[in-house]
Each structure stands twice: as C-alpha cells, then as structure tokens.
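Box 3.1 A note on notation
Throughout this textbook, protein chains are presented in two layers. The first layer is the amino acid sequence; the second is a token string describing backbone geometry. Keep the layers aligned when reading.
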Amino acid sequence: MRNGESCGAAPPLIVARCAFYFAFRILHSAFFILLLCSSPAAAQAPAALQLPRYETRYYTVYTDLPPDDAREAALRMTVMAEEYALRTRDFAARINSRMPFFLHAKLADYIANGGPEGTDGFFDGSRLVAFGGRAGARSWSTVQHEGFHQFAHKVIGQNLPAWVDEGLAEYFGEAIFTGDGYTSGIAPAWRIKRVKQRFAAGAFSPTAQLIQWDTGQWNQRLDLAHYDHAWTMVHFLAHAAGGKYRNAFAAYINDVAGGRDKSAAWERHFGPVEQFDRAWRQWWMELPEDVSERQYVAACTAMLTSYLARAASQKQSFADFEAFLAAVSAQQVRFHPEDWLPKSLAEAAVERATDDARRLGLSWSLASQGRSPTVVCTFKDGSQLIGRFTLKGDRVGEVSVADRKAASKAR
C-alpha cells in the first residue's frame, strides 16, 4: 500500500500494523533465564504449530528459531518488559505472571497461527505472535510495538483510549536495544519530517475525535496518519518542556484506566483540546529533525559499555579503544555464561561506532573511573557521553550512560 493509505478494517482485538508502515521502519543484562539446556516442552497450539517452549522471567516463549536466535529473543523480551515497566511505573501494575509469546521461523506458520497477511506481528488480547524469519530491526520494532499492547492489557487495563495504547506502542517501537537495556524516546528524522508535512497539509484528524476512540473504532479507521498522530501526542506529553506534562499524562491514564469518562479526564488534566492542539503543533513544528542524533550515539555508547562491562567482569582488559572495538567485532570479548549477548548486537555496535565517528566527527576512547574502565564518546564541541557500569561479582550489574554537556552550553 502507499504511504498514508488506509489498511481497512482489522479483526476484533487484533492490533497489527499495516504492511506499508513497516517499509518506513528504520532503526538502526537483564537477567537471562532462558532454559536452553533443558528439553523444551510442546506449546499449547495446534499440532502443526507445536513449538519448543522456553520459560523466561516475564514470558513463556514458543519458538522454532535456531538456539542463538531464540536466546536473543528471550533476552530482548526480558529487557523490553523492564523498559515498559520503568517508563510506565506511574500508572502500571507489576507483571505477576508470564505472558505467551509465539515467534515463528516460517511465515506460513505465523499466518496459520492467526497472523494477518502483510504484518510481522500482532496481539490478539492474550497472545503476542510474531514472524521472526526476517529478523533485524523491522521485526523487532513490530514486536516492541505489539508487545506493549500485551503488557498494557495485562498491567494497565482495558479502558485505555486507543490513542494512548497505540501512541505508547509506537513510542516503544522506536526504542533501540542496547544489550542491558533500551534507549527509548527516539524521534527519527524521517518521521519528524513526515509529521511536519502532515501538520502543514492538515492531514491529522481532529484531536477531539481521536481521543474518544476505543480499539474497535481505531481498527475501523486504520491509517498511518493516526499512528503518527498518537505517537506525536505521547512523545509531546513525555518530553516537551522538560517533562512538564508527564505527571498530568500519568494522572490522565490512571483516571481513564480506572473507568473515568475520557472527556472529563482530558479536561481535568489537559484543559481544552484547542489549547493542547496549539502547544502540541508548535512544539513539533519547531523540533529540529536531528533532535535524536545524540540519543542514537548514546545507544551506541550503551552497547559498547555492555561489552566493556562483560570484559571487566572476566578481568579482560584492552590497550586502547581500537583494540577493544576489534575484540567486539571478532566476538573475542569474554563474559559470564549468563551475560551472553547476540552477535547481531556486536555487529550493530561496531557499525554504529565507526559510522558515527566518520559522519559526526566524534572520537571514541577508553578511560578509567576509579578501578573501572569507561567508554568515552567526545563530540566536536567538547561534550561527552560516558558509558559506565557496575559489577556484581563476576556478573554485569548496571550499565548507564552519562551526558556531560560542553561547558559553554552547561551555563
């Protein structure tokens, strides 16, 4: 389908994104308890779809992907669930039981298990089902989006307005996996450009209508513009004016999830829709298209720091950053068996680090903080991103990235 063309109606309870949407997806240790060494049990699925089953912290994963791909799926899902929980802690309950996740290696099996044609994943009110045969950013972005619907259904409630459910799902769909976490809040330049074009063309539906839709009404009006609309609203409420609207957003969600009338909740926390529309539109129209550039570099810094932490946990050291990056590239970084990371992450980290240095003129180095090494990314203006970690014995504890602004900008 063409960009912006409606997908048509979707089956009830199925929240699957349209094929044309995926073409625009450009995305460049949590505790791992996947029992790959045990004998997998058969999933409770039709005989033709019986899959090996693996129990993880938050999910029961049914997948016929190769062992390393299954292990990557379990790791990503564990860390993603923790990112959902972290970002929604003001209005979500705790995950108290595992959620079912079916990840198929074959497209035919995905479709036989309910997958709508032209999609990579869906949530049907209970199960998260995805096609993992394509792998890469496109499929994982879909899983992150649809996985949020499953998370929200379980721990937030079923009364969410569709714009909140879809907007937050889009928000998490843009997040970048870094090994021990995710970098969320990403606003890609291509998407900001498209949003500005929609504003200029008056292509968004009236916000006063959008905020009233439930999932059924949303599915009757599937259109890429609605996803952009919802995503921009969520992003604005989460990040505009230094987080000015976050508390109101959380309170609004608590109200509607608890059964309060949607219009009354909106008016109580955001005031007149027209007033919101003016602030929301102005913020996006003034937003630089490269606003997330530093976040992309921060994500790369976090990836590299995840590897440096593993090396340090096994008392492996490097003469300089070049030697370290070569070890990452060659899969020679040592790690505790439960701190495994997928090969795809190493490839992404090396590619991003090399490209960022060339394209942005930044430099990478290793430095010391006390007895622990750090990853340091230095920009042309002198500002730095510093990747740090903690250890728990011979295991990785926490990985973080600190942003040290240039002195002239910090004042």
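Residues 1-45 have pLDDT under 50 and may be disordered. Residues 293-410 form one domain.
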